[in-house]
Amino acid sequence: MLFKRVDYLASYYLIGGEPLLNRELPSIISAVHEKFGSRIGYIQIITNGSIVPSKELISVMGKCKVKVRISDYT
Q1: What confidence tens digit (pLDDT) does each residue in 8-22 have?
Q2: For the whole model, what pTM was predicted?
Q3: Is 45:70 a contact under the CB 8 Å cutoff?
Q4: How many independent structural domains does the chain possess?
Q5: Pick from 72, 73, 12: nearest CA to 45
Q6: pLDDT value for 4
Q7: Residue 3 and residue 23: Cα distance in Å, rounded?
Q8: For the chain, what is the radius of gyration of the CA atoms?
Q9: Where is pLDDT greater, at 71 or 26?
Q10: Full residue range of the structural domain in which residue 25 is found
Q11: What is the 3-state secondary structure (H, E, C) of the chain?
Q12: 66-70: strand order across its sheet
């Protein structure tokens, strides 16, 4: 729906709670990248850094133009 009104996003943020706790995150990232990758500069995940990403997630992030930002939410 968003891309009916917008041609390109410099970044697409996945935030809310602690994203790395979501076991579906690799699938979500892959789906967003597959469907909209040509219209998104990069996908950004904001985390508090308390969770070590799985090997699967690291692999997906490397393939799908993902940046990780660690924030202390202050």
Answers
A1: 999 999 888 899 999
A2: 0.87
A3: no
A4: 1
A5: 12
A6: 84
A7: 26
A8: 12
A9: 26
A10: 2-70
A11: CHHHCCCCEEEEEECCCCHHHCCCHHHHHHHHHHHHHHHEEEEEEEECCCCCCCHHHHHHHHHCCEEEEECCCC
A12: 9-14, 40-47, 66-70
